[in-house]
Every structure is written in structure tokens, then in C-alpha cells.
Amino acid sequence: MIRRLLPHPALSVLVGVVWMLLVNEITFGALFLAVIVGVAAPLATSRFWPDRPKIRFGSALLGYVGIVLWDIVVANFQVAWVILTRRNRDIRSHWLVVPLELRSPEAITVFAGTISLTPGTVTSDVSADGRALLVHALDVDDPEAEIARMKQRYEVRLLKVFR
């Protein structure tokens, strides 16, 4: 019964939290609507998600979030330094093709989103077979080393989060 009412419990909680953030006030009515929307949205979309991703909500996920937050802060300073100290012709931007070991569409989406969240890089495309990402990097000395860094810092951790 509960499984039918809450097909994606984590999504229900996320939708409810986002609803409350959008409303920007804590009232009975806002909480009531957050619960209604949090239950209704996953129910309405559950047939589009036949296989729920298996996510480990433990140290692997916390470690991943910590690394991503740290990298976002550091990359902000790196990008600011590049923009403030280099001339346009001295910036070494590259298109990188990052091969994927991840197979789950949700895991690939998180990986691509993480790359785009980190200043100085943006995911542009996923290959048709889902085996590679096309990433633009603002300033790269060694493209192969940058690809290896992305895979080591993010993809290896995501492989542990998404079983």
C-alpha cells in the first residue's frame, strides 16, 4: 500500500522541500500543499520510471557531495584567476570527450550535472549510445589529465553511489 502511494519516496521528499523553498514561508497551508504535491508528482510520473535507480544513502553519497562542494568553491577561485589574469588568446579551452563507465541514465545525469556545476566546465552532449560525454573546459593544460581527474574524482564515486 505504501509502495503504491509513494513509488519514489526520495523524490516525494525532494519535491516537498522544493515546494516549501518556493513558497518561502512555513504555514499549515504551505506544508499541506507540499505533502499533496510531494505525493502527487511522483504518482503521476511513476509510469515513466519503470526501474528506480538504486542509490546508497551513506558515506559514499556524503563523500561525493563533500567533494563536489569543495571542487565548486576551488573552481570559482581558479576561474576568477584565469579571467582576471589572462588575455583571451592565452586561455587554453578544449573540448573533451569523457568516456563513461556509468550506465544508469540517472547516474550519467548526475555526473554531467556535476561537471556543469563546477565553474570552468560544462557538459554539452551525451553520445547517442550513452558511452561518452562531450565537455567544454575553459582552461586546460593537459586534456587527458583533465579527463582522468573528472573520472577519478566524480565517476568512481558515483559508481559507488549508484549500485
Task: Report the biggest beta sheet as strand number plus sense, adding barrel if it closes.
Answer: 3 strands, antiparallel
Oligomer class: single chain
Cα shape: globular
Please report the distance between the alpha carbons of the first and last residues.
Answer: 26 Å
- Determine the number of helices (DSSP H or I, runs of at least 4 residues): 6
Class computed from helices, strands and strand pairing: mainly alpha
How would you describe this structure in keywords?
globular; 163 residues; 59% helix; mainly alpha; 3-stranded antiparallel sheet; 6 helices
Short structural summary:
The protein has about 160 residues and is mainly alpha-helical.
Description:
There is one protein chain. The chain has helices at residues 2-5, 9-23, 28-45, 59-85, 105-117, 143-161, and strands at 94-99, 121-126, 132-137. The protein has a three-stranded antiparallel beta sheet with strand order 1-3-2, covered by helices on one side. With 163 residues, it is mainly alpha-helical. Strand 2 and strand 3 form a beta hairpin. The chain is globular, with a radius of gyration of 19 Å. It starts with a helix and ends with a helix. The protein has six helices and three strands; from the N terminus they run ααααβαββα.
